[in-house]
Specification:
metal-binding; about 325 residues; Ribonucleotide Reductase, subunit A; lipid biosynthesis; single chain; about 0% strand; lipid metabolism
Length: about 325
């Protein structure tokens, strides 16, 4: 049995694939400007410049929309952590440097435009938003729960995680736009979701090439990510409350994670159709299949509990109205 390849060796072997995918991305991307997606006519000064400070009645967003918008924005705000992760795990050599720079610049626009929208429309409390940003960015983020692993070189884990994370973020942005009841917000979040999809394709293609190069090693990384997936918003202020609201109202819930993120990605990589794994890889694939079966049961239980809860709330509203 040949020895496992190191991160450095894998990156070197895959650099031509990275270069081709940087070129593909640049040809596919749509250039856009954040200021074109913000309704500036709705803006006015705050108290320090002679206007009026924010108050809750000024927001036209529902509680669900506010929770989702704040979660999405704080996720984008943590770009310094993601950039640091990308530099450490992907490196700054050749095509990898080109990708890290391009990806970082594009991601930065997302935070800019969402914040401008929320401040101009007074959708959320800007002081609370800034306090949450400070806390979240200061805490940073790693794709694993292991604090020591945050800075441990693991190229394969990183590209696998980024694939699922970018797709999850795309789903969250797109569904958030639908609950904002504002065509401007919906258009803005559609634009961001399209970016996230292209980013996902880059990482998905890199992981696909890694599966061809080092099947067992790449499968181990993919399975580890699927079985221990953490949304990038984990750890931000009020994340649990906001994520529960988002799940309850179908913005991002276990069913979406399973059916729109995990399953299609594993199908794209042909994880359960490949015949190039060793016996060790086959065993790991069986473990992953067992996990997915248990996850499906968890999803069903969540849906049943949510349906009962929503039905109970609807009955209570009807009783009060009567």
């Amino acid at each position: 049995m040949s020895r496992p390849l190191t991160d450095r060796e894998i990156r070197s072997e895959l650099e031509p694939v990275a270069a081709a995918n940087v070129n593909r991305h640049e040809a596919a991307v749509t250039e856009w400007n954040p200021h074109d997606y913000v309704p500036w006519e709705r803006g006015r000064n705050f108290a320090r410049t002679g206007g009026v400070d924010w108050s809750p009645e000024q927001s036209q967003l529902s509680d669900v929309a506010k929770a989702a918008m704040v979660t999405n924005l704080l996720t984008e705000d943590n770009l310094p952590s993601y950039h640091r992760w990308a530099v450490e795990q992907l490196s700054l050599d050749g095509a990898w440097e080109a990708w890290v720079g391009r990806w970082t610049a594009e991601e930065n626009r997302h935070g800019i435009v969402i914040r401008d929208y929320l401040v101009v429309t007074r959708g959320v409390d800007p002081i609370a938003l800034e306090q949450a940003r400070m806390q979240h960015v200061t805490n940073g983020f790693g794709p694993t729960a292991d604090e020591e692993a945050k800075h441990r070189p693991d190229f394969l884990l990183s590209v696998a995680y980024a694939t699922f994370q970018e797709l999850a973020t795309r789903v969250s942005h797109r569904n958030t736009g639908k609950v904002c009841d504002d065509p401007v917000a919906d258009r803005m979040l559609q634009r961001i979701a399209a970016d996230e999809n292209l980013h996902m394709v880059f990482y998905r293609n890199m992981c696909s090439a890694a599966l061809d190069l080092v099947p067992d090693q790449a499968l181990e990384a993919v399975a580890d990510v699927v079985e221990n997936f953490r949304m990038p918003g984990l750890g931000m202020p009020n994340f649990r409350r906001n994520s529960v609201l988002m799940a309850k109202h179908g913005i991002y819930d276990p069913r979406l994670h399973m059916d729109e993120v995990v399953k299609p990605t594993l199908r794209k990589w042909r994880i359960f159709d490949r015949d190039d794994f060793t016996s060790r890889g086959e065993q790991r694939r069986e473990q992953l299949a067992t996990y997915l079966e248990s996850l499906e049961h968890q999803v069903i239980r969540f849906e049943e509990q949510r349906d009962r809860r929503l039905a109970r709330e609807e009955r209570n509203r009807a009783s009060k109205a009567g």
